[in-house]
Description:
The structure holds two protein chains of two kinds. Helix content of chain A is 29%, strand content 23%. By secondary structure, chain A is an alpha+beta fold. In chain A, the strands form three sheets. Chain A has a seven-stranded mixed beta sheet. In chain A, helix 1 (20-34) runs parallel beside helix 3 and helix 2 packs parallel to helix 3 (110-127). By secondary structure, chain B is an alpha/beta fold. In chain B, helix 1 (10-27) packs parallel to helix 10, helix 2 runs parallel beside helix 16 and helix 6 (147-160) packs across helix 11 (260-269). Classes of the chains: A alpha+beta, B alpha/beta. The A-B interface holds A 193-195, 259, 262-263, 266, 269, 313, 315-316, 319, 321, 323-333, 336-338, 340-344 and B 1, 4, 8, 10, 13-14, 17, 38-39, 42, 45-49, 51-52, 66, 92-94, 96-97, 106, 117-120, 123, 141-143, 145-146, 197, 225, 352-353, 362-364, 371-376, 379-380, 383-385.
Amino acid sequence: MVTEPFRDTRIxxxxxxxxxxxxxxxxxxxxxxxxxxQFNAGALTDAAxxxxxxxxxxxxxxxxxVQPLRFAGGSIGSLSVHGTVNDLAVSGARPLALLSTFIxxxxxxxxxxxxELSAMxxxxxxxxxxxxGGDTKVVEHGKADGMYVTTCGIGVLEAxxxxxxxxxxxxxxVLLSGPIGDHGITVLLxxxxxxxxxxxxxxxxxxxxxxxxxLAVCAAEVRWMRDPTRGGVASSLNELAQDAKLCVTLRExxxxxRDCVRGACxxxxxxxxxxxxxxxxxxxxxxxxxxxxxxAVRAVPGGEAAALIGEVExxxxxxxxxxxxxxSSRVVEMLVxxxxxxxx
Amino acid sequence: MKYVDEYRDPELIKATAREITAxxxxxxxxxxxxxVCGGHTHSIYRFGLEQLLPPAIELIHGPGCxxxxxxxxxxxxxxxxxxxxxxxxxxxxxxxxxxxHQGSALQLxxxxxxxxxxxxxxxxxxxxxxxxxxxxxFFAIGFETTAPATALTVLKARELGLTNFTAFVNHVTVIxxxxxVLDDPKLQLxxxxxxxxxxxxxxASSYEEIVxxxxxxxxxxxxxxxxxxxxxxxxxxQLSAGEARLENQYSRVVPFAANPVASQVLAEVFELRxxxxxxxxxxxxxxxxxxxxxxxxxxxxxxxxxxxxxYHRQFELSSGPSTAxxxxxxxxxxxxxxxxxxxxxxxxxxxxxxxxxxxxxxxxGACAAxxxxxxxxxxxxTNGN
Lengths: 344, 385
């Protein structure tokens, strides 16, 4: 195996051609960053071989096309690890291994790719998961936005976990792991199109430690989980309400939102319930286990702001309703199209 | 959060609601109140304020949402300009989903037109500076609230000597449509919640002519829930006492007189159009502005006159496609003659995802606000805590 470090300053079409340049990129840059005991680096093979444990496997994929590539609190690299790890976590599965594929735009500076590989390695290490293989393609300059990343993840379902909208019952409580809107607003501001500055960072992180703590105390009482990414809490809970044919009601005052996120939403005319998150999860828990579940999540570093934000009611079926402190309520729909700021 | 939380105090809101209910019960009559501004409509639904009001108060959502009253032909004209390969068309986010006959800006962008969302016309100016080989056009919409920003941008373009920036001006004025609504004999209104932000430019005093000529009270109002509840209470007090005065509830932001700088800039750059077509309301005299001749080099209607003429020739040849949009009774909703849910298209052919009428587009439009926030009003009243 070639161990020479990658010296090309920019990605070119030849780096995706499968020939010598591809091999130099893989062995000189990608493998050194992502190598681990499971990554069969000594002999780059066509598939990763993993030992099978007993039980059930969870298997998921996610693609990342974020712009800008880097923003306060994260980047496309860390996001691509957290996104897939979190999809496994909210399925009740302990993340086991990831595959990552890159679509690179010719002309991408090698240092940009290296920074993202490094971010992926750090995120993997923090999340306790390994990248065991992947693929790289290069497209012509102008045909992609710098780089796109797709990650696939495989995980092992924890004991006693049975998550389904069909198990959700009237009276169940809705748990949220922490303040919402940080990621969406951070990325919006990072695009530099708005003259708004805020001390704010993306919440991009693995939620597995919090989910693991939750499942450890009440796996059988957790009915449903979701990470409220694009479309925000509103879209996740609308889907739940529709799938379960029940009504989800939230208390506005109990939903944790940072002041600077609230402020940005007010200025831009956005509903924070529609704003994306990358490091939070929602869980519906049986009422009898709700307090225990909340304590377990709050005990995990990063879970201190977790809150019970609402409950499940019988009707109107398929709706998400938010109650204000002054005694009225509104129906919150799923996000339609893109979030577009209002003018007046 | 300062300047927000004070005006969302749940106890004060509830106390105001109790005062309103007591006043309405004592008077034993119905009250029909129009909030003119789309921003007020949005707040009323977002904060569920209608649920706090007694049934004897009917809120009518007026023609104060700039994208809602824009006729489809103006959208089409903007898109006809954007079809020129040299053009980068820029627009506020509100504009992006407004349907034209060929589709909305978002749909045409997906088909390859270079249409970009901006947060300020100055962002469009920046685009013109960094793309000297392109023609940057700003699709200007809004009442007197946003018109000064467009005017200042045109002045800035002249100062910078830019030759590749133009504005497609669709700015409208607030008083003429209020008069048009009041002149409709079918409409029985008791008073207005007056637009607040527009009044930061034109001054609360601009509404005096409505009070004088029509003997209807106007309360210039802020946009937070407590502002709107307080304004309704102020209006009811006047109506109960048989008065019709102008009052300024939003005095923390709105002065009595017009903003002198904004007025001067508007007068320098714009002049009144003889008439302008309002979606749902028809043609209203002196209700919109255009760039003065001295600024014709920044006027997209002048620079792209050939494209607009070609569009109109084609439009007339096809005698205009017959679509549901032509049959939708948006005008009746705008004038408060019909509730959104009574429209035959509401929630069926016409939804926020696939708007037929513009009232369903902007979250300030009466139909979209109603669709998003209030469809379960009856259930909410029975179950609400």
